[in-house]
Amino acid sequence: MNRLMQVAGAIGMLLAVRQGPARLEVPESLKAPADEEVILAAHATGVQIYVCQAGADQEFRWVFQAPEADLTDVTGKKIAHHFAGPTWKHRDGSEVQDKVVAKQDAPRPDAIPWLLLTAASHTGEGILSRVTSIQRMHTAGGLPPNANTCAASRNGKESRSAYSADYYFYAS
Dihedrals φ, ψ of 37, to 5°? Predict the structure, then answer.
């Protein structure tokens, strides 16, 4: 099933990229600046990591900690890794850390939101050292567990929710 999701996502991503960035169906709030163009598209499969903890109101809830995902190209070859920050590290050694600038609920109710992020810092030389914006779209899964599964007895416990998404990396 995981491989099938990768192949389906890669096919959809290839078709979208071949149409060109102007034709990607992107909600207005998530559009990259007009002077930027897609320089890399990748499909991610991995997990969204949550930790059970008490809030200021002493109610226990699942709190997002970090993503952990591998990104593949249209052939299914691993090209990058996504982890806390949010950070992406490409196999060429380049790295970009971004911050969220816009969020929109996913069309699927069982999926994490779509995002627009902007580069906060770069490390190394390579394709990601040019990135100025990133879109996370076409998400599936990744939501936290049901709230009623987080209680004092589970304080500090981690939960990993499987997810997939397409990431579009932009540069000016």
Answer: -135, 155
The DSSP H or E segment spanning 86 is: none
Q: Report the SS3 class of residue 16.
A: helix
pLDDT at 7: 43
Q: Are 26 and 45 in contact (CB under 8 A)?
A: no
Task: Give the residue extent of every domain in the chain.
Answer: 2-22+35-171
End-to-end CA separation in angstroms for the chain: 37
Extract the runs of DSSP E, i.e. beta strands, from 55-126: 60-72, 78-83, 87-90, 95-104, 114-123
Considering all CA atoms of the chain, what is the largest pairwise distance in Å, rounded to the nearest integer?
Answer: 51
The span from the CA of 112 to the CA of 64, in Å, is 11
Q: What pLDDT, on a 0 to 100 scale, did the predictor assign at position 5? A: 45
Angle 146-148-151 from CA coordinates, rounded to 5°: 120
User: pLDDT, tens digit, for every residue of 11-63?
Assistant: 444 444 443 444 468 999 999 999 999 999 999 999 999 999 999 999 999 99
Q: Which two tokens stand for residue 167?
A: 């990431």
Contact 133/118 with Cβ under 8 angstroms? yes
What letter does residue 84 receive in the DSSP assignment?
Answer: T
Q: Which pTM was predicted?
A: 0.85
CA distances from 59 to 56, 148, 159 (A): 8, 11, 18
